[in-house]
Amino acid sequence: MAKVDIASLNLSELTQAITALGLPKYRAQQIYQWIHKKGAVNFDEMTNLSKELRAQLYDNFVIFSCGIEKKLVSCYDNTVKYLFRLYDGEFVESVVMAYKYGYSICVSSQVGCNMGCAFCASTIGGCVRSLSASEILGQVYAAQRDLGIRISHVVMMGMGEPLDNYEQTLRFLHMISDENGLNISARNLSVSTCGIVPRIYDLANEKLGVTLSVSLHAAEDAQRSRLMPVNKRWQIRALLQAVRYYIETTGRRVSFEYTLVRGQNDSAQDAKRLAALLGGMLCHVNLIPVNEVSETGMKTVDQTHVRNFQAVLQRNGVNATIRRTLGADINASCGQLRKTIR
């Protein structure tokens, strides 16, 4: 019989599994906290459990932890990028960033990505598989353990499309915010999507209180379809209807990510079209000069150009900030994460 992925079980499910083995319910709470509060990567670390009980756990369960295959630290801003090795030999990258308010981690939800965005390294070679909730959680726990820190914010903006792995993403969000685990506030959790419209409605109806970040990158369908193939299925009008539903249902402001690519979507006219598109919406725009990836051939824009684009948005009533580039010297910036060792 296959062993159960214990770190993907919520406390209720773990309690059922533990009591089914004839063990008392309180053991489930102990085990859950060892995994999700203390970051235990094996049962031998659970020192308040008897040797016999630990042997029983080994017989029935497995902890899929993330092994550190490679670690890079930026010499500019101390951003840390990890290449994590998964149980089956696949790899994902994650990034830990230090801010005044604490530590934030950008986690991956898939090995690779199927979305095919033209400027992104994560999608090169497509998607190998989606991650389990335990593998997404494991990135957080492994980083905390290695750095000796507590992470306070999580952004699902690494490799993969979180809403293309919806069930495990949802399970991850519930577990990372569980008071019996790390208990990270839902307001400190962000989920990024390139626009899987049906799942935006689903996520809105969950009313979790997480921040939705929508990768937009263009204000016209033809332009967006060239950069983001997902737009051929769900065009801008349908996407914005879903976003408005999310805002109305949750009361949360939505962030739009807009990557500026030289000669593609970076003109003053593009800025005016974007302002007209988003005017009156409870939203915020993050402007991101594209982080260059050798395979795509797409070129970035200078800071003066970005500030001019920002100014057009602000003059037209749209709140916009310029994303601070972190980890540029270790290819840890937005759009640069990969599933392969380089």
How helical, in percent, are the residues? Answer: 25-40%
Low-pLDDT regions: none
Average pLDDT metric: 93
Overall geometry comes to: elongated
Number of helices: 10
Which secondary-structure class do the elements indicate?
A: alpha/beta
CA distance, first residue to last residue: 38 Å
Written account of the structure:
Helix content is 33%, strand content 21%. It has 342 residues and is an alpha/beta fold. The strands form three sheets. It has a ten-stranded mixed β-sheet with strand order 3-4-5-6-9-10-11-12-13-14. A two-stranded parallel ribbon has the order 1-2. A hairpin with a 2-residue loop joins β5 and β6. α4 crosses α5 and α6 runs parallel beside α8. The mean pLDDT is 93.
Pick out its properties:
two-stranded parallel sheet, 342 residues, single chain, ten-stranded mixed beta sheet
Summarize the structure.
This protein has 342 residues and is of the alpha/beta class. It is built from ten helices and 14 strands. The two termini are 38 Å apart.
Layout: helices, strands, pairs:
Elements: E1 4-5, H1 11-20, H2 26-36, H3 51-60, E2 61-62, E3 67-73, E4 80-85, E5 91-99, E6 102-106, E7 110-112, E8 127-130, H4 133-147, E9 151-156, H5 166-176, E10 189-193, H6 197-206, E11 211-215, H7 221-227, H8 236-250, E12 254-260, H9 268-278, E13 283-289, H10 303-315, E14 320-322
Parallel strand pairs: 1-2, 6-9, 9-10, 10-11, 11-12, 12-13, 13-14
Antiparallel strand pairs: 3-4, 4-5, 5-6, 7-8
Helix pairs in contact: 1-2, 4-5, 6-8, 9-10
